[in-house]
Amino acid sequence: MTSKQVKPLAGAVSTASGAVRPVAGVRITGGLLHHWQHRNRTATIPHTIERLRAAGNLDNLRRLLQDDPAPYRGRYPFLDTDLYKTLEGLAYELGDGDPAGREFFDEVVTLLEQVQAPDGYLNSFFQDPSAAKKPWEDLTWGHELYNLGHLIQAAVAARRRMGDERLLRVAVRFADLVLERFRDRGICGHPEVEMALVELFRETGESRYLAMAAAFVDRRGTGQMEHRIFGGSYFQDHVPFRELPSVTGHAVRMAYLAAGAADVHLETGDPSLLAALERLWDDMVATKLYVTGGLGSRHSDEAIGDRYELPSERAYSETCAAIAVMQWAWRMFLGTGGAKYLDVFERVLYNAYAVGVSRDGRAFFYDNPLQRRPDHDQRSGAEPDGEPLRRAWFVCPCCPPNVVRWMAQLADHVAAERDGAVLIATYAQARIETAAMALAMDTAYPWDGDVRVTVERAPDEPYELVLRIPGWAGDAAITVNGEPFDAPVSGGWARLHRGWAPGDEVRLGLPMPVRAHGSHPHLDATRGSLSLARGPLVYCVEQHDSPQAAVDDLVVGVRDARGAGVERRDGAVVLRVEAEAAPAPPAELYPELDPGLDPGLLLGEALPGTRVTAAFVPYFLWGNRGPQAMRVWVRTPCTNGKKAT
Ligand SMILES: [Zn+2]
């Protein structure tokens, strides 16, 4: 394979379901996503490499080359995956010609080649003869197949992006051992390997990897795993996958499993798998997803929680879960062509995912709450290292390297194609190249909804350019070469079918009014509150930007929200919102109710003349100016029978 032959992450080879194929030839050339990728390359990756070295992730491998290995460093048996995720991200960067990180990449790959056992086994925790557990002894918590999954994903990326086969050889040897060991029985406590094995099938054409991935999905819920510490639902192992009543258990496990099942569906076309995936997806979006796209409300077991169990200040919403939901969303889009999956993809991308990394790219959230109380005890987190807000690293550092690899592959999720059409999945300043067309896209999205697509190369025959119209956009305006174009719009797609010539220019105008969102009546935590959004961005208010009133005292009416001023500040669009300041009444915590009680007593009535102004910033930017109170959901007067104002 030549060094520049490039395939995208999902669905490159066959996609039996056949709805949509990914497009490999996309380059993000400017705008917010480009800024994120540049930051990833110049700040997050060097930071991550430094931290991996300091935390002992390389030493854990290196020690296995010694006669008397030093003790394993770190608490968990899956710390090799943080190397693998970083290698996966680096493969994208090095494939694009960036020399930074090359030394680290080669060093780790060489170590892995040296450390891999003669039978193909590879895990720096279990390979130590003095380790507390032996290989395969603890499938529930050993994460050995989870390790293999990340190894395969890094290896496939290295081959596709760099033409480097070394890691793939290591991964195939381990994968073949796993196929032998798990031929008849057994699953891993942490899904991940399913997606990876489907990718290995795509890369090698060996259908046994696809069959193994399908078997791992099918075996769940059939009594093949011992449940310890947590019950079967934590592992999505209490019922077979197709019978899961709802997304459940550990959020990252659930979404990785669903993404893996979606990959199996993409390659096998299994309709029962798709039916289950669609049902689970729709239920999740209707009842279990935060407004930011975050998944998972429980800290105790990093679990998703019940329907409508979505507390703001105790949101778990792990950064890794955000990545997993995007992986699932993208595969659902490929399998069905449904634009609704991309609406959620974007919601997660610009909110629950983007918030996980600091503005300078060197600090991270593990959990992503939607509210910070003014008296928040910042040491109450799982890892009380005393750092305020985002942290430079974690004892369980799964999230930072996951951010690294996902930032590096954003371009794979901009466009797709099917026979006779190219689809724009999300808008960014980018160059899109398919076999049929080359397009240059110019936009400041997500800051505004104006998009210009210039045709650089086109087929002789008429061809379809399909533009996604996000669910929030309402009526989009489309022109071709300055003339209004009446494109049929259905299912979230506008279809422009015509003959194209180089130089043709399509203009898309997506209206981006400020929106006010409420909550479902069963969503007790935020019922009667309001959140602001514009385009795909969810907004929040930090105390820094509300000098006249405590953020807990802000009362924002629907008209206040929709009439917010739109301003640019430090490269971002902020919303200037007029609100009322309504200090909470000096009531008891639980005042007794009677029919004559003035609802204002409970809500905190605004005093006359207490109009104040506060700036709302994109949620993903919060927490970059020091710890202060923050809210996504603010009080609104539209409760207790009072009308919205
Ligand atoms: Zn994580």
Write up what this structure looks like.
About 50% of the residues are buried. Strands 3, 15, 16, 17, 18, 19, 20, 21, 22 and 23 form a 10-stranded antiparallel sheet that branches. The protein has helices at about 30-55, 55-60, 80-95, 100-115, 145-160, 165-180, 195-205, 205-220, 250-270, 270-285, 320-335, 340-355, 400-410, 560, 600-605; strands at about 20, 25-30, 370, 415-420, 420-425, 430-435, 440-445, 450-455, 465-470, 475-480, 485, 490, 495-500, 505-510, 515, 530-535, 535-540, 555, 565-570, 570-580, 610-620, 630, 635. Helix 1 packs antiparallel against helix 13 (about 400-410), helix 3 runs parallel beside helix 13 (about 400-410) and helix 11 (about 320-335) packs antiparallel against helix 12 (about 340-355). The N and C termini lie far apart (about 65 Å). Residues about 1-15, about 380-385 and about 640-645 have low confidence and may be disordered. The longest helix is centred in the N-terminal third of the chain and has 25 residues, at about 30-55. It is built from 15 helices and 23 strands. It binds zinc ion.
